[in-house]
Design brief:
Oligomer: single chain
Structural class: alpha+beta
Shape: elongated
Number of strands: 10
Order of helices and strands: HEHHEEEEHHEHHEHEHHEE
Length: about 500
């Protein structure tokens, strides 16, 4: 089975180091992914389902192994009224009782043909009692029983159900493995997305901190100018309002940042009370992407395709099972055994010796039965169930075809998103530099009295929006690239597949 997660994680996440502090846990994307792949609820839940399917597969695999079973009666006690038929008269009702101690041992060897060959032995001692209805007199007897036999049981004219069940269990287990791997890949992407959401919230908080400092500095300058009579009171009030609003914005962004961290902790599966801080580097590298290569790799590697292919194989097994509803079935059953019953009275060892002696002289029990079941008329039940399962097979085949078409559409869309995000990032990178220079110029003009407090606040707001647009474009590019890798299992930087055959 194809294992792809290890290289996939290495290609999707960016490099970094994690530093453990006394008060906060600093996380890189790599460390966050590693924690999530072991501790998150989603991974643990799907891992339990995968393990359950593994044990179910091993159960059916073990059906081909021999079995040794021991059953004991310690004791078996039964007392009841029994009807005794009489010739030309009504039945009489005697009271019978039995206490039995013993057991049987059975060794079963499963044949490759789906039948089995069993070697069994049975040994018990019992006390019998009968109370007669006429005079309520009682008879008692102790006896021992021994048996050793060979049994052969083989279905014919039908499919080997053991092999069929094993094949179905194998498909289900391998499908569960694929689903678990896909879940891990989704976890990697979701952790990457959550990581950058926390990073954006922290970046926005930093922007608001800078905005508050700038607003407070502008307020300080405005107060000095107002005291010297260089600006009217209205400009001072506007500058003061901007400083207060910046303080409110910072408070909201701090709350948003803490909320994003809590959601991230829940996502990766760490203690909600643990303090974390993230470390990220604003690296940007242009990646050359060939659309046709991306589509080909996605169609070859996508686990949804392979899962649906397993669904089709499982449905074909269901069609075979449906056809057997109306097929001719046969069975061969044969047995050969020796039975011994004690023929004298005595203690328990003597009774068993008598049983073994009788075992040697009594003729063996033997027999062969060949049964044949031929369906004649079922008013269309068998035919309709086959048609139903055949239609379900066609539905799954249509689903596979649709998945392939959806994959092509998704890859085209993601590649466009990557290209658009790269272009947007470079534009916003230039805009951020221009906006920062523009704000510095506006601040100097405000100090010189050539710009009002309201105009300076507008410049500050424009700078903040451009900075947020810059980080949004960066995150959009990184997530689009990560999503493309997840959906194609192809490393576009190194031009290699993430699959491990």
């Amino acid at each position: 089975m194809k294992k792809c997660l290890i290289l996939f994680v290495c290609g999707l996440i960016c490099r970094g180091t994690a530093v453990r502090g006394q008060q906060k846990t600093k996380l890189t994307i790599e460390q966050a992914v590693r924690i999530a792949l072991h501790e998150s609820y989603t991974v643990q839940s799907n891992d339990e389902d995968r393990r359950a399917m593994q044990y179910e597969y091993l159960y059916y695999k073990a059906q081909f192994k021999p079995r040794l079973d021991l059953n004991l009666y310690t004791p078996s006690w039964d007392e009841q009224v029994s009807a005794i038929a009489q010739a030309d008269d009504l039945p009489v009702y005697n009271s019978t009782g039995l206490i039995r101690f013993g057991g049987d041992l059975r060794f079963t060897y499963v044949l490759p043909t789906g039948g089995n060959l069993a070697l069994s032995g049975n040994l018990y001692h019992e006390n019998l009692r009968t109370t007669f209805a006429q005079d309520y007199s009682t008879l008692r007897r102790k006896q021992a029983f021994s048996r050793f036999g060979l049994i052969f049981d083989q279905p014919v004219f039908t499919k080997n159900k053991l092999r069929e069940n094993l094949k179905a269990a194998q498909y289900q287990y391998e499908r569960a493995e694929l689903f678990f791997t896909r879940t891990q890949m989704d976890i990697v992407y979701n952790v990457t997305k959550g990581f950058y959401e926390v990073y954006r919230a922290g970046y926005e908080r930093q922007i608001n901190e800078d905005q508050l400092r700038n607003a407070q500095e502008a307020l300080r300058i405005a107060k000095l100018k107002f005291e010297t009579g260089n600006i009217p009171e209205g400009d001072l009030l506007v500058t003061e309002i901007n400083a207060l609003q910046s303080d409110v914005n910072l408070s909201e962004s701090v709350g948003k940042y803490e909320l994003q961290k809590d959601e991230f902790k829940l996502l990766i599966g760490i203690d909600m009370t643990e303090e974390i801080d993230i470390e990220a580097e604003m690296d940007f590298e242009t990646v050359t992407i060939d659309v046709q290569t991306a589509i080909e790799q996605a169609l070859a590697n996508r686990l949804e395709v392979k899962e649906t292919e397993y669904d089709i194989k499982l449905q074909q097994i269901e069609i075979d099972r449906a056809k057997r509803e109306r097929e001719i079935k046969g069975n061969i059953y044969a047995y050969y055994d020796f039975t011994g019953l004690s023929t004298q009275t005595g203690n328990v060892p003597e009774l068993f010796r008598s049983s073994f002696d009788n075992f040697m002289v009594r003729p063996p029990n033997r027999g062969v039965t060949f049964t044949l079941s031929v369906p004649i008329l079922d008013w269309g039940r068998g035919r309709n169930i086959v048609r139903s399962q055949t239609i379900r097979l066609k539905e799954k085949q249509l689903k596979l075809e649709n998945i392939n078409n959806v994959i092509v559409k998704e890859i085209r869309e993601i590649v466009r998103t990557v290209h658009e995000a790269e272009k947007r990032f470079r534009i916003n990178q230039k805009n951020r530099e221009n906006a920062a220079n523009s704000y510095r110029i506006s601040h100097l003009r405000f100090e010189n009295g050539d710009l009002s407090g309201q105009e300076l606040a507008t410049e500050q707001e424009r700078l903040s929006q451009v900075q947020l647009a810059f980080i949004d474009a960066y995150i959009t590019y990184q997530l689009a690239l990560a999503d493309l890798k997840r959906r194609t299992m192809w490393d576009f930087e190194n031009n290699r597949s993430y699959r491990i055959n």
